[in-house]
Amino acid sequence: MKNENREIGGDLMLNGARYQSRSSLAGLTSEPGKTGRRPRWKWAMAGTLIIAVALALPSPAQSGIFSVFGELFGTIQNDMGSALSTINQVTQEIQQLYQKTVWPLALVNQARGFVSSSITSYRTYMTQVFSLSSPSATLASPQQLETILHSRQSAQIPALQASFATNYGAVPPVNTASPQDRVMMDIDDALGQETLKTTIISDQGQDVILATANQMENQVSVSSPGSAPFFTAQAQVANLRCQAFMQKMLAAELRQEAGRIAHDNVLTKRKASAAGAINNLVTGTLSR
After folding, report:
1. CA 175, CA 50: separation in Å to the nearest integer?
2. How far is the C-alpha of 267 from the C-alpha of 261, rounded, in Å?
3. How confident is the model over 218-241, as a mean pLDDT?
4. How confident is the model at residue 42 (pLDDT cuts 50, 70, 90)?
5. Does the model's pTM come out above 0.70?
6. Pairing label, strands 5-8, 17-19
7. Which of 47, 74, 150, 274 is deepest in the core (most CB within 10 A)?
8. What is the 8-class DSSP label of residue 32?
9. What is the distance between the alpha carbons of residues 250 and 262, in angstroms, rounded to a whole number?
10. Residue 159, exposed/middle/buried by CB under 10 A (0-12, 13-18, 19+)?
């Protein structure tokens, strides 16, 4: 049949029926001043149409889709499911082997309880021993020096130097003592202050080592089997740090001892020099 398009009164005639353009529909359905907005019922109709098309598919096509999903579910439940069940069974057997044979849970808990009991019984007393101070000075200035020496804080080193000069005195002025005596006094004071400063630093380092040891004890009390190599490595590092502090203290002691020997040797030299001067004086007197 031949299609005829005619325009009557601003409307189009399509196949003999009146056809309203999009603009005219917009004018009928939209509010005044609002254009280009589609009603919601059109979207609902489009969704209904899509569902109807999906349901109108031939039954063989629907059965093919559902058979694919059935195959997928069957593969997951049968093949993969049996493999996962086997893996879970093996994992449980390995876990039971570790808990009953390799690392018995009862013995592990017993070791943890022993560590916790030791910490509760001895840590407080050991801390008191390491932090024990025995003040002995009775005068104000020596008490201040003693407090600084037991402070265990390297920040007190400048105060130590001032308190040392107050208690042990300063080097005499130039014309009040011989040059050699002034040199010896200065050297002895320097060695004494250096050793005292080293003891303060060593006490502070001791506190760091003790804190590390307490931390390691706390970790051991809640550790899991197999972590022993890690704790051993950490203990070796702490031991090396402790050895370094001991070497530092030994070096300070050796310097102090070397200074004392040098001081005694200076006195011996001065005695020999004085004896030689007296010998020359007597010899000169007798030769007149």
Report:
1. 115
2. 10
3. 85
4. low
5. no
6. unpaired
7. 150
8. T
9. 18
10. middle
